Amino acid sequence: MADTAQMKVSDEVAISIQQMNKWYGAFHVLRDIDLTVYQGERIVICGPSGSGKSTLIRCINALEEHQKGSIEVDGTLLSSDLKNIDKIRSEVGMCFQHFNLFPHLTILENCTLAPIWVRKTPKKEAEETAMHFLEKVKIPDQANKYPGQLSGGQQQRVAIARSLCMRPRIMLFDEPTSALDPEMIKEVLDTMIELAEEGMTMLCVTHEMGFARQVANRVIFMDEGQIVEQNEPEAFFNNPQSPRTQLFLSQILGH
Amino acid sequence: MSDTPAQSVAFVRETAIPPSPAPANASGIVKWMRDNLFATWPNALLTIASIYVIYLILAGTMPWIFNGVWNTNSLAECREVLDGTVGACFSVLTERWNQLLFGFKYPVDQYWRPLTAFLLMFAALAPVLFFDLPRKLLIITALFPFVAYWLIWGGTIWTPLFALLGFVAGYLVYARFVTQSFAVGFFGGVFAAVVVWIVTGYITPMLAPEQPLLEAVPSRDLGGYMLNMMLGLTCVSLSLPLGIALALGRQSSMPLIKWICVIFIEFIRGVPLITLLFVANVMLAYFFPPGSGVDLFLRVVIMITMFSSAYIAEVIRGGLAALPKGQYEAADSLGLDYPQAMRLIILPQALKISIPGIVNIAVGLFKDTTLVSVISMFDILGMIRGPILASTDWNGVYWELLGFACVVFFVVCYSISQYSQWLERRLATDHR
C-alpha cells in the first residue's frame, strides 16, 4: 500500500494556483496561496479550524470567489465568465461534509441529474453509468430509495458516486468524514482509497491522518490562511519543521 | 472505570431477547370513552357540557333546515306555508338558482356554455393536480384557457385562436434561441408573441363574422358564483408563476431586478385589496391607450393577481430561505446553470415547503373574489345583496342566501385544503 503514494503522478498540471488571495469583507482568509497540483496527485490539506483549508478548495470550483491572483484548472483560467466556471465545475467533482444529496430525488436520480442536464447524456446511458458507480461504492441495491432512508456513510458514498457520474478529472473532498459516526468513516475512506488507487487527482481536506499517511503524495498544513508547510507524508508526520505544525500534530495525534 | 468492583458489573448477554407483541390491554369503545371522554371528573363535566352545547345548536338549526320550504315564489308565500312554525325559506335558492350561479344578465339559453367550461375545467386541472397521470394530458390544460374563453365570452373564434397563436409563436422563438442564452430566448419569445398579438389585433375585426357561432357576452353580463370561480381560477393560476418569479427576483444578485421586485412586493402588500379594485375599476382605464377599452374582467384579474402574487412571493421566499445552502452549492458544483438549478433542485424543494402557505393564500384569494361586489360586479355576493335581496319577493331572506354562499365557498376551500394535505403526504420523501 505504501507505494501507492508514488504511483501515477504525471508532469501534467491539473490545477495551478498563483498568488491567490481572498477576503471576507475586511477579513483576509487566504493569503498568497501558491499551489500546483499534478494530474494523478493526491493531496491532503489539514490545519486548525478557520485556517482557510475549506475555503481554498471551494475557490477551485468557484463556490467561493477569490479577489486576487489566478486559479487555472485543466488549462482553463477561472474568471467571472460563467461559461468558464460551468466548464470547470463539470470537470471537478466535489464531496461535502454534509453530503448535500438532493432529498426530493431518488439515489439514482441524484446520480443521473447532472449527466442528463449538463452533459446531455441520454437517460438510459446516464442510468447505466450511475449504476456502474453505485456498484463501485457498493450500494446498487439502494438505487431507488431516497437519501433520507440511507445512513450517513451510505449517503456520503452516494455523493461520491454522484460526482463520479460526471466523469470528473479532479475530485475535491471537503471534510467528507467529519459528520459521520466512527463505524461509517471506514466505509467512506475505503471508497476514497479505491478511487486514489485508480489514479484520480484528489484534493482532500480531512483530519484523518491515517488516510493521509496511506494515500497522499503530499500533505499540506495551513494556518491563518497561509500554507505553512508541505511535504511528503512520511517526512511531514515524522519530521515536521514548523513549530506550528509540530504543535498541531502533537494535538491531533497525541491521543 | 477501573475503580468499580469487577464482580458486580461484569455482564455478558448470551441470548438475545426476541421481540414480543405489546400487552393486549383492554380495548374497545368503553375503554376509549373512559380514556378520552371521562378520564377525570373535570374531564367528564366538560364532556357533558359540550354535548349539551352541541344539542342546543342542533335543536335550534335542525327544525329550521328540515322544516324548510323549497317551492314557493316569494317570502310571503313561504310564510303562509310555514304558518308560524319555524322553518327556512329555501325556495329563494330554487327560484333564483340560475341568478346565483350565472348572474342576472347572462343569456338564459346560453347557460350550457359556462357549464361545459366548468366540466372541462376538471379535465384541465387533473393532470396539473395529480402528476401521476400521463403527461400528455397537459395539452388539455394548455388549450383549456382558450376554449373556456370562447365558451364563456363567445364572439368570434379568431380572438382565442390568435391569442393561442401568439403563445405558440412565442414558444417556438424561445425554443429556438434558449440554447444560446436563457435571456435571449425569453425576451425573444415575449417579443414574438407581442408582435403576433398586435398584428392579429388589426386583422381580427376584419375576419369577425356578422353572426358569430357563439353569441358574444360582454364581461359586464357575467355574474354569480361563475364569476367567483373564473376570477379565483384565473388569478391563482397566474399569481403562482408570477409569485415564483418575484421571489427569485428578490433573491437576485442583480440590484436592479432585486429592487424592482422588493418595491413591487412591499408596495402591493401595503395597499388594501379593495383600493386596488377601485383602481382597476376607475383609474386603470387611464393607463391604457384611450379607446383600447381594456376589459373590466381583465383589469380586475390584473389587480387581484398582482395582489396575491406579492403574498405568494413572500411565502416562497420563506421556502427558499429554509433550504440549506448546501443544496445550492451541490447544484453549482455539479455544473448546473442557474435555470437548471432552480427548476430541478431548488424550486421543487422550496415549493414543497411553501405548500401550506401558498394554499393559505389561494384559499384567501378565492374568498376575496367576493370583494368585486363593491365595484358593482355581480358575483354571488353581489347578486345576493343586489338583485335578489332588493327584489320585493325576497326582501329579508338573509340566512338562507348567505348560508348558501357559505356552503358553496366552503366546499371549494375545503377541497383545496384536503388536496394540499394529500399533496404534502405524497411529496414527503425525507423520512424524518
Strand content of chain A: 15-25%
Query: How much strand of chain B?
Result: under 5%
Q: What fold name stands as the CATH topology of the largest domain in chain B?
A: MetI-like fold
Shape of chain A: globular
CATH architecture of the largest domain in chain B: Orthogonal Bundle
Cα-based radius of gyration of chain B, to the nearest Å: 29 Å
What does this protein look like?
The complex is a heterodimer of chains A (255) and B (432). Chain A is α/β, with parallel strands linked by helices and 255 residues long. Chain A has helices spanning 53-60, 82-91, 107-117, 123-136, 152-164, 182-197, 209-215, 233-238, 243-253; strands at residues 13-24, 27-38, 42-46, 68-73, 76-77, 92-95, 170-174, 201-205, 218-223, 226-231. Chain A has a 6-stranded mixed β-sheet with strand order 6-7-8-3-9-10, sandwiched between helices. Chain A has a 4-stranded antiparallel β-sheet with strand order 2-1-4-5, covered by helices on one side. In chain A, a hairpin with a 2-residue loop joins strand 4 and strand 5. Chain B has 3 domains: 106-149; 154-217, no CATH class; 225-432, Orthogonal Bundle (MetI-like fold), CATH 1.10.3720.10. Chain B has 18 helices and no strands. The model of chain B has no long low-confidence stretch (mean pLDDT 88). The A-B interface holds A 61-63, 82, 86-87, 89-90, 92-94, 96, 98, 100-104, 113-114, 117-118, 146, 148-149, 162-163, 166 and B 324, 326-327, 329-337, 340, 344-345, 348-349, 352, 427, 429-432.
What's this model, at a glance?
The complex is a heterodimer of chains A (255) and B (432). Chain A is an alpha/beta fold and 255 residues long.
Attribute tags:
heterodimer; A: 255 residues; alpha/beta; 6-stranded mixed sheet; 4-stranded antiparallel sheet; 9 helices; globular; disordered N terminus; B: 432 residues; mainly alpha; MetI-like fold; 3 domains; 0% strand
Summarize the topology.
The complex is a heterodimer of chains A (about 260) and B (about 425).
Chain A: E1 13-24, E2 27-38, E3 42-46, H1 53-60, E4 68-73, E5 76-77, H2 82-91, E6 92-95, H3 107-117, H4 123-136, H5 152-164, E7 170-174, H6 182-197, E8 201-205, H7 209-215, E9 218-223, E10 226-231, H8 233-238, H9 243-253
Chain B: H1 6-9, H2 29-36, H3 41-66, H4 75-82, H5 91-95, H6 97-102, H7 112-129, H8 138-153, H9 158-177, H10 182-207, H11 224-251, H12 255-269, H13 273-287, H14 296-322, H15 325-333, H16 338-368, H17 380-388, H18 398-427
Helix pairs in contact in B: 7-8, 8-9, 9-10, 11-12, 11-14, 11-16, 11-17, 12-14, 13-14, 14-16, 15-16, 16-18
